[in-house]
Write a structure and sequence with these properties.
The chain is of the alpha/beta class and about 550 residues long. The chain is about 35% helix and about 20% strand. The chain contains 17 helices and 21 strands. The strands form 4 sheets. Strands 15-14-18-19-21-20-17-16 form an 8-stranded mixed beta sheet. A 7-stranded mixed beta sheet has the order 3-1-2-4-5-7-9. The chain has a 4-stranded parallel beta sheet with strand order 10-11-12-13. Strand 20 and strand 21 form a beta hairpin. The N and C termini lie far apart (about 125 Å).
Length: about 550
Amino acid sequence: MNIVIRKLGKKIIFEQAKNVVEKEKLGVTNVWNFKEIIFEEKKLQDSFIQVFLKELLVKENITIAQIEKVDMIPLLFPLIKEVPAIKEVVIKEDAIIPSEYYNLIKTLTHVETLECYQMTSFLFDSCLKNLKIHIHYRKQEFIKSNFMLANELNTHSKIVYKKKVTFYDTYNYEDVCDFAYFLKENKHLEILEYYGTDTVVFKDVLNCILEKKKTNLKIIILQRNEEQKDLEEIVNTIYKKYKKKLKDANIKLEIKYTKEYKEKNVLKQLNLNIFRLSVLILFLVTISIYGISKFHVYSSQQEVKNIEKLREELSIKKIPIEPIVEDQKEETPKTDKEEEVPPKKEEPPKKEENKNNDTYTKDMASLKKTNSEFTGWLTVNNTTISYPVVKHSDNDYYLKHSFNKTYNINGWIFMDYRNHTETFDQNTIIYGHDSNYSIMFGDLKKVLQKSWYTNKQNQIITYETPQKKYEAQIFSIYVIDNTTDYLQVVFSDKEFEAFIKKLTDRSIYNFNTQVSVQDKIITLSTCYKDSSKRLVVHAKIK
């Protein structure tokens, strides 16, 4: 590239040679006239030539330097730096001065004015902050349009660094043009808030964004007023058309309704993804709860099977209960008594019974070894209730622990902690959870069926301890609101007499069983339907 240097009054002009210059004519001039000098670019970088030009510029009292092209700055600014008389520099080309020329500009400490078409915002801000040079733009870029005014885009640096702008659907064509220019210059935009429901204007805005190849942008569409127009339909229509382009540019559309609209259309504002996620979470929670419940039920059933298997292995005999015959007392005095007198050897059967008691003691000891809190085995005829009973230091532990003391939501059958295990109290209470799976006391609700409680065989409850096997005659069955008035353990004779009468009066059926203050009773208690009621069975120990 050849450089033409011309003098025009107090101004020196540096231009690119338009015509090819013969090599022998380069550098030939009448120095004192200083009309025109032509140099090769590389010659102009020669130190001798630079000293020559410096002296020439000083001698001619040059105060203004005009440079034709922006890319000539690196070549000529070092020369201008050496001429303190130059106070003004003009860049004629309508092009942006790049930021990397900042270090060259700041060397012009004597220059007062720099005229150019435009420069980068970084360069502009740096010159304003650190240099005393007055920057004069030839391009009038800050048009006072509605868009520019609303977003306070009154400096180039704001145009470049603005991260969030708003655009109203009432803006005109000039605003759209300014918005397009803003997008061209801006490098940091993250959010565009669009107010209104005019799809035509919105498409113009969206097209500007895509044409300027903006990426990683969030566009929030808001209502301009309280009008109840559905924005979802508008956005969905536009999204279908621009779906691929928006996805490629990572541009996201988001709807934001007014407070008034939200209050009237809450359901419409539910984000579909959040709704689906909520449904999924609810489904998983439900499945988890159901699964956990099933697992605990299965665990309880397995434990029951294990205990029953253990009972079989230990040869614990379930002695069948003979049906109670009402006329039994009348038959006893008959001649059968005389027929039984000759054998009078009831010792062998008693010995046999003693052997059974030895077996009980041994078997019960094995259960006691499995769980030291084992007290006995409870059986209720024609139900699934046939369980070892335990007793803890409180009435809470076995609500959620099984026989082997592992956590189980179905708990276990347990005796009231206030009761004595070897000798019955006036009222010995045994608790168990109600269950829909007929485990624990889940099957106790059968006692409310007339066909069950009128069957005399069912009216006998069996309770086996390491010392003895007991039978108890049911005298009261009832359902009552949640109360503790039947959970007293020890009474005076007068209190116990009133207590027995109260329990008998509550019964759904008259069992004609006489209970006195000398008797002791067993009470079975469980929830009924929900925790607000209790199903209770009372039986007199024979």
